[in-house]
Design a protein that fits this description.
Shape: globular
Number of helices: 2
Strand content: 25-35%
Strand order of the largest sheet: 1-2-3
Radius of gyration: 13 Å
Order of helices and strands: EEHEH
Largest sheet: 3 strands, mixed
């Protein structure tokens, strides 16, 4: 159930300073689906405030852009 990649990325805060944010990535092919254990882990991670992204490179890049990261 653990993610494929665990990273720390800077996150912009109102003062404009970067603060670290935990990012977990579960890599999936375009039509790939989470297994039951991965679904459970995803739900727990999100409930704990952890950014848990599921998908391929395009999904991760979109998440980064939405968060104001330069990619």
């Amino acid at each position: 159930g653990l993610p494929d990649i665990i990273a720390s990325v800077p996150r912009m805060v109102p003062a404009g300073l970067a603060a670290p944010e935990r990012l977990e990535i579960e890599v999936k092919a375009q039509h790939g689906r989470l297994r039951a254990a991965q679904n459970t882990y995803h739900a727990h991670a999100v409930a704990a405030g952890i950014q848990h992204v599921v998908g391929g490179v395009d999904v991760v890049l979109a998440w980064l852009r939405e968060g104001g990261h330069r990619v």
